[in-house]
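Let's practice the habit of predicting before peeking. Look at the sequence and jot down your guess about where helices and strands might fall. Then scroll down.
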Amino acid sequence: MVKKIKLNLSILALILLSIGCISNVNENNNRNYDLYSKVMCPVCDGQTIGESQASIANDMKNIIDSQISEGKTDEQILGYFEDRYGIEILSAPPNSGTNAIVWVSPFILITFAFILFFIWLKRSVKENTK
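Done guessing? Here is the structure:
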C-alpha cells in the first residue's frame, strides 16, 4: 500500500515538473514573437521582423533569440536595436517627448471635429426653424 502511494506521488511529481518545463518553453516562444512584433524591418516598408522574410529580419530574429537565451530583458533587447538603428526601428515608439504629440493629436483632432460638427448641427437646426 505504501509502495503504491510513493509510486503515485512520484508519477504525479514527474508530471507536474514536465508541465512546468513545457510552459516555460511556450512563454519564451511567446516572448520571442512579442519582440518580433515590436521591431520593424529596416528594409521592408511597414513590416515588422515577425512579418518579413528578408534576410536581415531573420538575422534580427536570431539576435533576439540569442539575447533572450542570455537572460536579457525586453527593454534591454529593444534598447539594443534602438541604439543601432534609431527610434524608428520600434513599431510603437515611446509616448514621450515629441512622440507624445503623435499619440495625443488624434484625440485632440477627433474632439475638435465633434465640437465643429455640433456647432454646425446647432446652426443648421436654427436656420431650418426660421
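How did you do? Residues 16 and 81 are 38 Å apart (CA to CA).
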